[in-house]
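Hello again,

I reread your note about wanting to compare the complex against the isolated chains. To keep things tidy I'm splitting this into two emails, and this first one only covers the full assembly. Below are the input lines as submitted, including protein chains and any nucleic acid or small-molecule components. They are followed by the predicted structure of everything together. The single-chain runs will come separately.
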Amino acid sequence: MFTLSRRSLLFAASGLAVSALLPRSAWAGAEAPRRRPILCVIFLRGGVDALNVVVPHADAAYRRLRPGIGVPGPGKADGVLDLDGQFGLHPRLAPLRSLFQAKELAVVHAVGSPHPTRSHFEAQDYAETGSVSSSTRDGWLARALDELPKSESLLRAVALSSKRPLALRGGSVDVVSAKSLERFRLRSPKPLGPKFAHAFADLYGAGDDPVVRAGRNALAVERLLRELPPTSSHVKYPDGARPLADIARLVHADAGLEVAFADVGGWDTHQGQGGRLPRLLDGLGKGLAAFRQDLGDRFEDVLVVVMSEFGRTAAENGTGGTDHGHGGAMLLLGGRVVGGQVHGKWPGLEREQLHEGRDLAVTTDYRDVIAEVSRSHLGVTMLDRVVPGHTVKPLGILRAS
Amino acid sequence: MRQRTWVPLLASTLALASCATRGPTPPAPASTGSAPAKSATLSVPDARHVLGRLAFGPRPGDAERLSAEGLAPWLDRQLGKAPPDPELERALEPYRPALATPEDLAERFLGEDWDEDTVARGIDRTLRQRAKSQLAGVAVAEITRHIVSQRQVEEVMVDLWTNHFNVFGQKGLVRLFAGDFVERAIRPHALGRFEDLLLATARHPAMLLYLDNARSRKESAPVEGKKRRGLNENYARELLELHTLGVDGGYEQSDVREAARVLTGWSVERPREGGLGFRFRPGAHDSGEKHVLGERFADDGEAEGKKLITLLARHPSTARHVAKKLCVRFVADEPPATCIEQAARTFRESDGDIARVIRSIVLGPTLLSADVRDKKLKSPLELVVSSARALGATPDGSLALARVLGRLGEPLLLESVPTGYPEEQAEWTSSSGMLSRMGFATELGAGRVPGLSLDLARALPDAREKLVPRAQALLLGERARPETLEVVRRELSRVEGDDERRAVVVALLVGSPEFQRQ
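Full-complex prediction:
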């Protein structure tokens, strides 16, 4: 069976002598180590049109601002799926409504950064550094991980992204980043034989030099992922939700995962968003619902945070889309979420209520959300490390652990 | 990636043999502050070490030649006047279109009648798509220069300054300017005076747009319903923190703000104003009195910015900050204090003469000391370039090599944060980083690195007895560990054909821990 060898490998910090591993292999029996909470951040790149995701259908200004692209009211054909009489989900997010009703899903609306930038990369950098100062050079997830108790897992942090995201840069915990788990492979192209890649294990087999250790670590991770048990669930994920399926596999494998990060692109809907946005939301909704189902009773350990760099203009533009805006929405899905609620103070969509007369205003600083997530879910106590220089305001979106 | 506009380059024109016999050594200019005894006794291992730090690694025979020539004369040649380099010119030919001026690029991307609107929109889909290939072209042009150029110290410095003065090639119109920035702002000053380099970057549209100075203007009362425009401190902050004084350089937030006020009006031309160059906008300039680092700035329009650049370039904190950067690059991630002190003193005494600062580090006591040997890790760029140099590989005329750097985690000109790519080892040794290095080595051995033209039969003609010694001499020299050679021999015993044998040796040596060192 896989279990024993996998676990010994999982926790084999590669520099340890074999003897040091023996007691740990014994964990694999009845007394598994205390499961750590797992945080998954899904970053929707491009600036999501939050007003068409969680629709403020009771705000009279909504339909006036969006005569063409506005989502029809509750009860109408292809209309909003009402949540609480005030807000409703886009009809393509139907799978999320049942999660909301089961109080497993919470929404934070009118959330964002106090920084007014409408530049994608700048706003993403702020969202990932957990700061409003460009002098913060490392990521909030990396800093949060550094605040957590040590672990010998090789898979504490996994980024399903082509490049290590800024959110996970600058910390001391290794980040496994690859577009998918499948891609984290050492291949042997012709004319090298199929087994050739194994030779590297011997090149990096012994020695305490940091580069040798890092190489050994990489090869151990590669082997671990190669041998990761295939998913046993029959849950079907939609296209584009592969990262969620990968994360679920890691959760089920008890791989020692603590932070997962996934990028989903394509949200920069300047034109004709009536076609593209529903398609993207369909994938997101089905993907999250599949993930929830797939996790089964492991759901209680997991928190998913869905975020984007900013929202979009309150009014539709001349090309059936929306432009870069300010306030947006975050979704939180997990076992300890104070779900079934749309959190945050609604600032309204009347002209004088809008940020600079055009965008949804920000009434909840996203740093308060990530601070609460870090404290209540991950157990970080030194919040100033996660959101430096920010005075944290409790929001009550998570139950304390 | 699209190949249409890129004339495939015949790799055979860049014969490996020609690298082995470089032109005659021009008379060396008098060196300042050199240590003759040292240059007379530079061993081949010393030379290899020097070429790992001051060059992108040795080409075949380079270490032996440097050892024979001596360090000081070699350095004089590297820092002196550039000799013609026809091999480089040939290699660059397919990538010349990518290095065109922003005006020419605008015309190519947006049509001859490009105007205010097409350029201002900038994020139009056509421009985005075309600029993507164009940026990849710039990246491969730079890689080509790093591989082929004889001016290796200059190439290393261009890479260093490109990260020191990082711009993000995918931010709006920066797309049009990033190549021009490296070629025409950084390159001409890479070995010159720091102040000239700083000024060239400060006035370049790529920097003005990337860090938003182009749209920074004097503060005014907000007008309701209008997008508020005012002071933008982005550039001023990075100018002080990253480009000059350093984070502990002794400035305060008020200095950042005041510096931003000084620089208001430094902006970019609009097409109807005649081009796409630097433009000072008096209307945006804050003419009030400011104080930066205790220095008073009275109303003097555009000249205030120049005065600020001079003030910063000559500040002792800048000398120290830049000195440290160079010591980190050449000597160690945590360089000895003596290196920094001496380099900073030279910087101050020479008014920021970069060549002289390099000279003081190279000819000083720390570069060759035993405790800095084999301690630095190659960046992904250095890994790719040094392996190509050792094996006589060159870009094949396509753009694919840009993506290879991307997979290794260092896509050129695409780092969004102003710090640029890091130099320190810890930033490059994640499991993904290490695995991608081994993957690159395996592809290289198999002759399948996209965008790289490599003839291993030429680099390693004998695939039998002399294969391992020759490959070791090209790639590792005396750095090779016995256990590495043992694994190589074991794997060789499992394969038959010459191509397989070469592939095994190259994959393992390039993927070895030793080759990650410089």
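For quick reference: DSSP finds twelve helices and twelve strands in chain A.

B.
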